[in-house]
Amino acid sequence: MNNKNSTFLLRSPGLTAAIFGSLLLAGCSAEAPESNNSEAASPTHIEKQPQTQASYQPIAIDDFYDAIKHWNDRTGETGVPHYELHQIKEIADNIILYQRDSGGWPTNKHPLRVVPEEEREAALKDKSLADASFDNRNTYPQIEYLSAVYKQTGDERYRDAALKGLRYTLDKQYDNGGWAHSPDRTDDHYYTRITFVDEVMSGVLTFLRKVAAGNPPFDYVDAALKQQAADAVAKGDALVLQLQVRVDGKLTGWAGQYHEETLEPIVGRTYELPGILAWETVPVVEYLMAIENPSPEVIAAVEGAVSWLESAKLSGFRVDRVDADSKRFDFHAVDYDLVIVEDADAKPIWARFYDLETNEPFLANRDGNRVYKLEDVLYERRTGYTWYGYWPEELLSTDYPRWKEQHSR
């Protein structure tokens, strides 16, 4: 994956599984034997004829790319057997294996791995743990995948697990409309904060909007649950608009975390200081632009955020990846470093964090101290966290202009 000595292009979260092909399917394939078990569903549910494994249609795993990347970064696994994409029941069984009794899922589990027996036994013992999370685009992809498998197979185990996850998601919404990073964890204040980092708020709301509309694969969800999802979206949308940061009376972007009671921007992890975040603002704007018949408040929020992203552009430099000695940290391994290179012709780039009052870009270390140069971020955080990127490019060049034409005042 590394292109050494080349410009390090940091992309938006909307990456396809193909881009991460070597990441997702680096191991050996593990074809399962054909199943001889017919899946008999009741007449009121989906009825499917028995199928051989190879006849199932592959289901996209794009939404798991973050979990898979984190799994690979942390474990350094290579050559481990993986299921093929058409082996949807085996993949779904993996997903159910890691589902907690609460209905949610822990982060960063690789759904395509062939899980060794000792790991499987440990996972079964861990089902009562209170570590389910929406972080790293988690829990809602599992629900959608299980729903899609149910639609193909008619196996009610997958439906029931998906509905359990959906109810968990609905139950964990705060009364004010927000969702925490990891609702059941009490070992750090960070987990209970209303979170925009890693698409917690925008990801959950996008998912629930599809459920409320009954869009496939959620067209099996009953009317009562769809209404609950619609009500949750309405509360969430109102909070998203409320939390947009204003600077000198102008709408800007969104912070990464907010206090669940005061609703003030607040520190997340020690190096995630309160600020306006460019990366996290982009999926929120994309989410708001997808609202049909947007209210004047939604239109104002989009236009304010886009204006802020335009003003937050940085120029005159690029971020390069250069060779370095191989080193493994707790959560990732690297054989490169990142450096700032002055370049008058470089295209605009964005910092991730901007000051809540001055709009000045900043970075930070694990000790919580703010710094203003990439070189002042220690090596582990410099390479283990994304500080600069081009996330708003497509939004500003394509998506927003198209939306603007449709919703001009």
From TrEMBL:
Renumbered residue ranges of the record's region Disordered: 33-53
Molecular function GO labels: pectate lyase activity
Region forming the signal peptide: 1-32
Keyword annotations: Lyase, Signal
InterPro entries: Pectate_lyase (IPR012669)
Any Pfam family the entry gives: Pec_lyase
Keyword Lyase: yes
EC number(s) given by UniProt: 4.2.2.2
Bias type Low complexity, positions: 33-43
PROSITE patterns referenced in this protein's UniProt entry, alphabetically: PROKAR_LIPOPROTEIN (PS51257)
Top EC group: lyase
NCBIfam families the record matches: pec_lyase (TIGR02474)
UniProt-recorded name of the protein: Pectate lyase
Species, as recorded: Cellvibrio polysaccharolyticus
Gene: pelA
